[in-house]
Design goal:
This protein is mainly alpha-helical and 487 residues long. The protein is built from 21 helices and 2 strands. Among the domains are: 6-183, no CATH class; 264-412, no CATH class. The chain starts with 5 loop residues before the first helix and ends in a 13-residue tail after the last helix. The protein has a two-stranded antiparallel ribbon with strand order 1-2.
């Protein structure tokens, strides 16, 4: 069900009314029914892939909670069994063709005539996102960070909450389950605030992202002879995917707020980052913090633990731990996004960026002092932001290209020659990007939200209605799916 469709609008209006007409202690019931309906709408079997891991994780967590923390072996058996089934479900539906195709390709190098015929797999909606929710919950219960949830209905709602199930945010159980137990009371201000954020999300998706795609898609489809348009398309794709994904996040957060639940933030103006590590603290925050807590830090400790000395091959042990954890975490992050070598390369490239950035910190500081940039912090920051944006845009090429070969072919055709085809779209897109930057800059100003909230609610409602009319007027095809839905 496309959330920008009329069907979803009617569906949400019904869910909204049922939710607020239901007593607080039973509010999970209409929301769980609505979430299950949303998941099963495209294909009823999608619901099976959601419910089965949810039941397994719920039962395993309850069993671990019943055992004392000292019974590590028994608790670990339940943890590993539940994780194996949860991850195994994801691997079975998303990665079998990729892994088997890779094995077949490797076998062909040794003269084997065996070929792998790709299977037609059903990819359940949001499986990558709710799998991470379940894994994080399991691990937190295992280490005793949170208690196991006893209410099966609320736990199922935590896993399947329909505004977030398709593409996040990836909520943590320790934060979101208490909200489900104690939902907010009805508040017109909160509902209006949620509606404004939903409208802003639709604006970013349907007006900016989909319009940027008019220029970006043809350039990526046929890069030969495009000249500088290849550079412009890479830059604009960076903003396209940002507006598309953060637009979905705004809609999800706004819808959840209208239903009485506050979601975790997921973006913080990522293209103002001064480094790739800083970028990942601002981009898809719920994923990056999940990767940090459940992959990066455990890998770092695992590398450092057996090494007793301070240095290895002249490099600090902490640096070895950082390099290993960064490369492995980001490579797996790329694979999580999609079963292609282009995604794997995209993730590994980010890992490489982070390693170079970490190892080069002292040299950057010395260089800044020698050139005098350290005494001009604004200029120094602007240069770092520009460099980071270009590195991220380069990596987005591998994210956008369907194969690794096509990504390198895109880079091969880059030339310092202006291509006049599509220059009007390019100009319009540049103005849209400037509008986005200005609007987000105003929103970040702490004074503006206060002034907006002081306006009478009827006036704000009229301005919101006008904004919605402008979205409808300037929007592109409403049938365009959000990019991150495919993950």
């Amino acid at each position: 069900m496309l959330i920008q469709s009329g069907v979803f609008f009617c569906y949400f209006c019904l869910v909204f009314c049922l939710t607020w007409l239901t007593p607080k202690f039973l509010r999970w019931l209409p929301l769980l029914a609505a979430s299950f309906f949303f998941v099963a709408y495209g294909h009823p079997l999608h619901l099976l892939f959601l419910v089965l891991p949810t039941l397994v994780v719920y039962g395993a967590a309850r069993r671990m909670a019943a055992l004392p923390l000292e019974a590590k072996k028994a608790r670990k058996r339940w943890l590993l069994a539940a994780m194996a089934l949860t991850v195994g479900t994801l691997v079975a539906v998303k990665y079998v063709n990729f892994f088997m195709g890779t094995v077949a390709g490797a076998a062909s190098l040794f003269g084997s005539g065996w070929n792998w015929r790709p299977l037609k797999m059903l990819l359940p909606i949001g499986i990558s996102f709710y799998t991470f929710r379940l894994l994080g919950y399991l691990i937190d219960v295992y280490f005793g960070r949170i208690p196991a949830e006893r209410h099966a209905g609320r736990f199922a709602l935590f896993t399947s909450f329909f505004p977030q199930v398709s593409a996040g945010p990836i909520e943590r159980a320790g934060r979101f389950l208490p909200l489900l137990k104690n939902p907010e009371i009805f508040s017109s201000e909160r509902i209006f605030s949620g509606a404004c954020q939903v409208a802003w999300g639709f604006f970013k998706k349907m007006v900016i992202a989909d319009r940027l795609a008019i220029f970006v898609n043809p350039v990526f489809a046929d890069p030969q002879g495009q000249g500088l348009n290849l550079v412009f398309a890479a830059w604009l794709y960076a903003f396209q995917i940002y507006c598309d994904f953060s637009g979905y996040t705004d809609i999800a957060i706004g819808l959840a707020r209208m239903l009485g639940y506050e979601s975790a933030p997921n973006f913080n103006r990522p293209y103002l980052s001064t480094g790739v590590a800083d970028f990942w603290s601002r981009w898809h925050i719920s994923l990056s913090t999940w990767l940090r807590d459940y992959l990066f830090l455990p890998i770092s400790y695992a590398v450092m633990r057996p090494l007793k000395q301070d240095r290895l091959l002249g490099i600090k042990v902490e640096s070895w731990a950082y390099m290993s954890a960064a490369m492995l975490t980001m490579t797996l992050c790329g694979l999580w996004h999609g079963p292609t070598w282009a995604f794997v390369f995209w993730g590994a490239l980010h890992g490489f960026y982070m390693i170079v950035g970490q190892l080069g910190r002292k040299r950057r500081r010395r260089w800044a002092r020698k050139t005098g940039l350290s005494s001009r912090p604004a200029l120094y920051r602007a240069l770092r932001v520009a460099l980071t944006f270009n590195l991220i845009s380069l990596a987005w090429i591998f994210f956008r290209a369907p194969t690794l070969a096509k990504a390198f072919n895109y880079l091969h055709h880059m030339q310092l020659r202006f291509h006049w085809a599509g220059w009007i779209f390019l100009l319009v897109n540049a103005l849209l990007v400037l509008l986005l930057i200005a609007a987000e800059g105003l929103a970040a100003n702490r004074r503006l939200p206060g002034r907006w909230e002081r306006l009478p609610l009827p006036l704000r409602g009229a301005l919101l209605a006008l904004f919605v009319c402008l979205i409808i007027l300037f929007s592109m095809d409403a049938g365009n799916e959000f990019i991150y839905i495919q993950f």
